[in-house]
Amino acid sequence: MMTSNSGRPDELDDIFKQKRVIRTEVRKALKAMDLSLRSQEDNAIQNIILGAPWFKSSCRLCAYISCPALREVDTFKLLSEILQNPVDGGKKLYVPRVEDKNSHMRMLNISRIDDLIANSTDILEPAAVDAHGNKREDVMEANDPVDLFLLPGLAFDRSGRRLGRGGGYYDTFLKNYQDLAKARNWKQPLLVALSYSAQIMDEGVIPITSSDVPVDALVSPSGVIPISAAAFNRMDL
Length: 237
Known about the structure:
seven-stranded mixed β-sheet; three-stranded mixed β-sheet; single chain
């Protein structure tokens, strides 16, 4: 199986076809999941994160807003805990806002769940300005680095490869943020994906291109799966 590209159109086309096949298979598996099992896995994953030292020690983080229609791992318990129970002055939370159809996404700071509104596709995201008309802080313009990204995805394998839904929003954003962190000599953020059991595949199964950004660790209902050296070092696993 092809795992990376050398830039040739025929190779890229083959990779994209493989990705489409995996997306179809995983969507079917997620659709077939019993609702009670999904709820159990949602709770287990969020409880694991909330109890993890690497999460508790993160002061600034980016997290996605789960969408039930997309069958993403629920994040609302996580977001509520972050926003309602500040620790040592509180955590600063940034959440995604899609700007256009060209893989352009921003991460904006919110201070409460009510800051989220439904967009044209019925997905919750922050408005560009707050209730007072002030521009929300963009994580790319912040003075301090992000410690942790909590990421969605359609499928993941045990070598850290992440398969999104094909829009390229997260890969584009993560690459830009990693470049920013490198330019400012910041420690790179820990990239952690949330995954139902049905979304995890064997090592090396997901084909990749040079634009795909790997994750450092997965959190599944059965626990944390560290992958990168950064995950092993920072998660003390």
